[in-house]
Write a structure and sequence with these properties.
The protein is mostly helical. Among the domains are: 75 residues; 72 residues, Winged helix-like DNA-binding domain superfamily/Winged helix DNA-binding domain (Arc Repressor Mutant, subunit A, Orthogonal Bundle). It contains nine helices and no strands. The N and C termini lie far apart (124 Å).
């Protein structure tokens, strides 16, 4: 036993024991270090994967957002193009209506002038047969002015072209008559009282009276033109 204790207490044995203990701590420290580095590497890689997933998600959302924006821009562009096309179509239709109106006005002016000339000639003629013929001609002109197929077609076209306008007008002012709606549609074309009188074969004074009544019914401000009010209605 004394030999054993002596061997343990021997300086060389003590030195080996100390070295073994130092190596043990070093190994443990290295193990902890390697484990820490491994965990840190794992966490960093996991973080990078999460970042890549987040970036991919945001990239996909950004792409979807860009596609939505492009889709909305395309829809807006299509709507603007359609609006421009409808505006051109409306201007073309209004041009057609104005052309038709001017044609009716010129024809009616010619017929009224012709009727006046017939009346003048009749007043200077004494022959009964000629006077009767001139009376028949005057009557035919009057009937043609009263029963005007072009006027009827014009009024039908006005009704077709301004159907939305007349519908809104009737909803806002249920007591409006057909004659008042017809007058409002003509004013919407920016026709003057004289032109409307010629188309309808009535006196300009009658048109002015009807305009006054229409203004009162629509409750148009005295400072506002009835044509502007109707055009912006």
């Amino acid at each position: 036993m004394s030999l054993i204790y002596k061997s343990i207490d021997h300086p060389v044995s003590r030195c080996f024991s100390l070295l073994w203990i130092d190596h043990f701590y070093i190994i443990v420290a290295l193990a902890f270090f390697i484990g820490f580095v491994g965990i840190l590497t794992y966490l960093m890689r996991a973080q990078k994967r999460r970042i890549k997933l987040i970036e991919a998600r945001y990239s996909a959302e950004a792409q979807n957002g860009q596609l939505k924006i492009e889709h909305l821009q395309q829809n807006l562009s299509d709507k603007l193009n359609l609006q421009e096309e409808l505006s051109r179509e409306l201007k073309f239709r209004q041009g057609e209506m104005m052309t038709m109106a001017m044609s009716i006005i010129r024809k009616n002016e010619f017929l009224n002038e012709l009727k006046s000339e017939v009346v003048k000639i009749k007043s200077r003629v004494n022959t009964p047969e000629i006077r009767d013929a001139l009376s028949k001609l005057s009557l035919m002109i009057t009937q043609d002015l009263s029963i005007d197929r072009d006027r009827e077609k014009f009024q039908m076209n006005i009704h077709a072209q301004h159907s939305n306008f007349t519908h809104k007008l009737k909803e806002a002012f249920p007591s409006m008559t057909e004659n008042e709606i017809r007058l409002a549609s003509m004013l919407r074309l920016n026709l003057s009282s004289k032109e409307i009188a010629s188309i309808l074969n009535i006196s300009p004074r009658s048109v002015e009276m009807n305009r006054y009544r229409l203004r009162k019914k629509l409750k148009v401000d005295p400072k506002v033109s009835i044509n502007d009010f109707i055009r912006d209605f």
